[in-house]
TrEMBL record, chain A:
Cofactors (names): FAD
UniProt lineage: Bacteria, Bacillati, Bacillota, Clostridia, Thermoanaerobacterales
Catalytic activity reported: (6S)-5-methyl-5,6,7,8-tetrahydrofolate + NAD(+) = (6R)-5,10-methylene-5,6,7,8-tetrahydrofolate + NADH + H(+)
A GO-annotated cellular component: cytosol
Protein name per the record: Methylenetetrahydrofolate reductase
TrEMBL record, chain B:
One Pfam family in the UniProt entry: DUF5981
Top-level taxon of the source organism: Bacteria
Organism for this UniProt entry: Thermodesulfitimonas autotrophica
Family annotation (InterPro entries): DUF5981
Ranges for domain Methylene-tetrahydrofolate reductase C-terminal-like: 110-203
Protein's name in the database: Methylene-tetrahydrofolate reductase-like protein
Length: 295, 214
């Protein structure tokens, strides 16, 4: 029996599609709920960010509950940045009792890049240790070796950065995450499918599912910004040229077309097991990306 | 090994001296001299700056090692000047401030921020190398401390923020895990990087740390 609907899809051999939901900075949930309703039946799971880029927001756990209430399939993002091992385990117990069955384990961005620069970064556990913590809770025991009154069961995943430089340390960590019990991986945004195919040759040795990260390009400026500032992302020049040729008004449409085209190629060539779409605040556009991809 | 310090912004020092017209200055001849934050020259410069804002500097001294017992003797020698001052402004690391406060009832105010214990990489360039965690892993990390050199203190390899071998928070600084990887590889010990490190015991010695040896 699968732990979750999402795990069932992962193991079914179907091309998996997930997308990201960014919770609001504040208590107005309208936009997030609108995005959830638009997408909940169009993708296999919705993945709620956890104070992305260390910017304080409505919590991932709250976003996942909203998805659950509205009949969608949530993936809880958990970073190690803000909570120590007690709080992380407690949140996992709570999430489980509320029907959340998918967790994505991340280290988390550094505090200093966010909007509370003086905060204390926790990093009591790292992503590998968090994955192991989940597996330990599943045996009915907490990290302190104490018995639980009621255990958990999760479909657990992690992230990998196929274009990092140097790549080998990342691949070693990827293997450690697999050993720690990761069942699926979401990648950092990929644009160069040839390079990605190389990474997949390596990843295919392991019994895990890989979802290629697709980040919507909205303008030439954004592409250049990501190249300069976002680790492990490399938008090739020909895509930047394509965006530029579309002009200022047409760049967004072009970005949607590019994302759709990449997803279609990944699906057709079976490069990996699925995609994870990140529209970064423009979640309503995911529908158009899916249409452009023929999904 | 040195206690690495940095002078506080002068405005902050000025604010802390708000209620005192007369000040005695104490520097330190060891770490604060080597970091050029509390040696003879810096004490003299501080005196000038304080006088420029109309403070009376009743005297000054540079204690050879402000964190040991000699401090008591030096305070005794300067008793008269200290008596005339409202407070002692200490240009030593926090250990010196702490030590001075044991031997006088005058308010003791730090002029420096104590940053970390570290080494001098090249002249004037200091870097923390050990956070004194009480359970050393250097044997498995090729002599580079992941708790200190990695911004997030990660034990099982690099985060996704590393870029071109540099750290997410500082493009000038090598990612600790890139360095560890390179050295372990060079030494033919890359298997150590594949090994799982369980969550660290952060309470090996509970705070405040104290131990009786032997
Ligand atoms: S692991 Fe790092 S912080 Fe701990 S004792 Fe060794 S060098 Fe110091
Ligand atoms: S980039 Fe490297 S040194 Fe910086 S936080 Fe990540 S793993 Fe640590």
């Amino acid at each position: 029996m699968a732990v979750s609907k999402f795990q069932e899809v992962l193991n079914s051999g179907k091309f998996v599609v997930t997308c990201e939901i960014g919770p609001p900075k504040g208590t107005n949930l309208d936009k997030m709920q609108h995005h959830i309703d638009l997408l909940k039946y169009r993708v296999d799971a919705l993945n709620v960010t956890d104070h992305q880029s260390s910017v304080m927001r409505f919590p991932s756990l709250g976003g996942c509950l909203a998805i659950k209430e509205r009949g969608g399939e949530p993936i809880l993002q958990m970073t190690c940045r803000d909570r120590n091992r007690l709080a992380l385990q407690a949140d996992l117990l709570f999430a489980y009792t509320r029907g959340i069955r998918n967790v994505l384990c991340l280290t988390g961005d550094a505090v200093v890049i966010g909007d509370h620069k003086g905060a204390k970064g926790v990093f009591d556990l790292d992503s590998v240790q968090l994955l192991r913590a989940i597996r330990q809770l599943e045996t009915g025991e907490d990290l302190g070796g104490n018995k639980l009154d009621g255990a958990v069961e999760f479909c657990a995943g992690a992230v990998v950065c196929p274009e990092a430089d140097p790549i080998e340390p990342q691949l070693i960590k990827f293997e450690k995450k697999v050993e720690a019990g990761a069942e699926f991986f979401q990648t950092q945004g990929v644009y160069d499918l040839e390079k990605f195919a190389k990474f997949m040759e390596f990843a295919r040795q392991f019994p895990v599912k890989i979802l290629a990260g697709i980040i919507l390009l909205t303008s030439v400026g954004m592409a250049k910004y990501m190249n300069a500032n976002i680790p492990g992302i490399c938008v090739p020049q020909y895509l930047i040229d394509e965006l530029a040729a579309a002009g200022k008004g047409g760049a967004l449409r072009k970005g949607i077309e590019i994302a759709g085209r990449m997803i279609a190629t990944i699906k057709k060539e079976r490069l990996c097991d699925g995609v994870h779409i990140m529209a970064i605040g423009r979640e309503e556009l995911v529908l158009e990306i899916l249409e452009a991809a023929g999904i | 090994m040195k206690s690495i310090t940095k002078q506080k912004p002068f405005e902050e020092i000025e604010r802390s001296l708000r209620r005192f017209d007369a000040v005695f200055i104490a520097g330190c001849g060891t770490c604060a001299t080597m970091t050029a934050t509390g040696g003879i020259e810096q004490v003299a410069a501080m005196q000038e700056r304080l006088e420029a804002i109309d403070k009376v500097v009743t005297g000054s001294t540079v204690i050879p090692t402000a964190c040991d017992e000699m401090t008591a003797v030096l305070l005794k020698e300067n008793e008269r000047a200290i008596r005339k001052a409202g407070c002692i402004l200490v240009m030593a690391c926090a250990l010196g401030v702490h030590r001075l406060s044991l031997y006088t009832n005058k308010p003791v105010l730090p002029a420096l921020d104590t940053l970390f214990i570290g080494v001098e990489e090249k002249p004037g360039q200091f870097r923390e190398v050990c956070a004194q965690c009480g359970q050393c892993v250097l044997g498995e990390t090729a002599g580079i401390c992941p708790l200190t050199a990695c911004h997030k203190g990660l034990l099982n390899g690099p985060c996704g923020g590393t870029n071109n071998g540099k750290c997410e928070v500082d493009k000038e600084k090598d990612c600790a895990w890139t360095l560890i990887y390179r050295r372990l590889k060079l030494q033919g010990r890359l298997d150590l990087m594949r090994q799982y490190h369980p969550p660290k015991n952060y309470q090996v010695v509970p705070r405040p740390k104290s131990i009786k040896l032997g």
